[in-house]
Design brief:
alpha/beta, four-stranded mixed sheet, 8 strands, globular, VOC_core, VOC family protein, Glyoxy/Ble-like_N, Anthracycline_SecMetBiosynth
Amino acid sequence: MGRLIHFEVHVDDMERAKKFYGEVFGWKFEDWSDYAGMSYFGAVTGDANEPGINGALMQRQGPPPEPNQPLNGYACTMGVEDYDSIEAKIMNNGGKVAMPKYALPGMAWQGYYVDTEGNIFGIHQPDENAK
């Protein structure tokens, strides 16, 4: 036990966050607000027959993270097939670079970004030729 099975992204503006994650990663959302007792949208992140987990966007209950501060929590990383095209979608939908693309030599391309809600997340493209 102890395997990650669900995640929650805390957001200030639910519609803005749904648009960002929907446009960038193709996530679909289901309104689970009645169950949660607050603004809460289940995030379907991909096909159930492929590796990965689903999560949710939930209404932030306190102040957002301050810019240029150390990460306080978890950073989720999404697997992508084309790093550069996803980075362009991130930037075109209001995201910002937190740590630019870098090589994990012989393994992948990795980088970190800030979403429209001030949260840090990563993207990861497997590539054995990365260097």
